[in-house]
Amino acid sequence: MKRKLTEEDLAAAKRLKSIWTSKRVALGLTQEKAADLLGFNTQGAVSHYLNGVTPLNTDTVIKFSMLLNVKPEDIKPELAEILSYVRKSPSPEPGEEISSLNVLTSQHRELIRLFDKMPESEKIHLLKQLDVKAKDYDKLLEELLELRKKSKN
């Protein structure tokens, strides 16, 4: 059974919708694209969050904030205290996994925009080419690391 939305939930949805409305065009977003980028099954999930049908949990607020390039507390101000604590925590050491969330840079968005313009057959071809190129770089990196090991010995 779905829980009833509180005034806080409705206010957060209203803030999210306002941010969405002001930024979606500049970011090249549709509800369908947002659903895909956010890992939701359907565009309807995005609509439900934007229209206050489904309450925003912390994970969803963070995902939307990253997608829309805003602070999570811009959507849900009650998260400010806990996020302040998290931000003051020590950063991971270089080489450590930083986050499981993907941050879309302007390059990522441009790549997606261009990719979406291509016919399906070209998308498949490009993905195969990129996969081969990435594997070549992985192999090259392995070879370089192996050479370093040998030169240190």
Automatic annotation (TrEMBL):
Start and end residues of each HTH cro/C1-type domain: 24-75
Protein name: Helix-turn-helix domain-containing protein
Any GO molecular function: DNA binding
Lineage, broadest ranks: Bacteria, Pseudomonadati, Pseudomonadota, Gammaproteobacteria, Enterobacterales
UniProt xrefs under Gene3D superfamilies: lambda repressor-like DNA-binding domains
A Pfam entry, by short name: HTH_3
